[in-house]
Amino acid sequence: MAKPDTFFGNNAIRISSGVVKISNNDEVNYSQIADDGEVTLGGTGKTINALWMDAQAIKAPLTNPAELISHGTLETPAFQFADAIEANQESVTFNMRLPNRMDRGVAPDITIGWSADGVSPGNCRWQLEYLYTKPDDDTGAGPQATVAVTSTASATADGMILATFPALALPEATDICIHCRITRLSADALDTIADTVELHGVCLSWTSDKLGLASS
Fold first, then answer.
1. Distance between CA 24 and CA 101 in Å, rounded?
2. Any idea of the CA torsion for 112, 177, 61, 139, to the nearest 10 degrees?
3. Which CATH architecture has domain 47-208?
4. CA distance to 10, 53, 98, 146, per residue, from 141 (Å)
5. Which band of pLDDT confidence, cut at 50, 70 and 90, is reported for residue 85?
6. What is the mean pLDDT of the chain?
7. In this structure, are strands 177-184 and 91-97 parallel, antiparallel, or unpaired?
8. Domain boundaries in the chain?
9. pLDDT mean over 185-192
10. If phi over 0 gives left and psi between -120 and 50 gives alpha, with beta otherwise, what is residue 138?
11. Which tens digit of pLDDT belongs to each residue from 49-76?
């Protein structure tokens, strides 16, 4: 005979068929431990995570590459993008594995950290092309989407600015990788910095609804 449900603390903790759910009793915001120990999160129980890749982990493509430089007193790596003409707007490329604990119902964010030396203040126009892949997908295919963001330089010379690309698509349940190219659209009318800018790194942010991938 099945054991009855057990409730504690004004129904905030519920044990049902070996599953423990801690919530505010609305079945939306909760932490749940299954009878096999797997932990899942719902609503405000979900967490935001971030993975940063510095410029040294990013590559410049063969076509119109940005230049990897040593930046500042500490000589940390950065990619320098020229105020180029339209025919050779410069780019960097990278791949990132999609985390097992990512909630595939919430679109991830890609944010870049960049700076300008202040000689020519204004806005920088950045473009992201990306492609999600799953096993057996064509890794050489073109981008599935292209998005752009206009970001204003800091009033501080070489001040760090974070720019987040808008409205990435939802990855599918079996997608495992995101392939990306970032370009400075220096020929765009919205790019008003008449000088080089530096890209220091890229950050993938995602929402977690579980601690990882359940073992078999």
1. 23
2. -150
3. Sandwich (2.60)
4. 54, 23, 18, 14
5. confident
6. 88
7. antiparallel
8. 6-45, 47-208
9. 95
10. beta
11. 899 999 999 999 999 999 999 999 999 9
| Structure-token match 């020229």, residue found | 82
**Structure-token pair, residue 169:** 């698509």
Residue that the structure tokens 């870049």 belong to: 112
Burial letters for 108-145: b for 16+ Cβ neighbours within 10 Å, e otherwise? bbbbbbbbbeeeebeebbbbbbbbbbeeeeeeeeeeee
More confident residue, 45 or 115: 115
Q: Round to whole Å and give the CA distance between 14 and 23.
A: 8
- Against a cut of 0.70, is the pTM above it? yes
Residue 24 CA to residue 204 CA, distance in Å, equals: 31
d(CA 123, CA 94): 24
pLDDT value of residue 42: 67
Percent pLDDT > 70 in the chain is 79
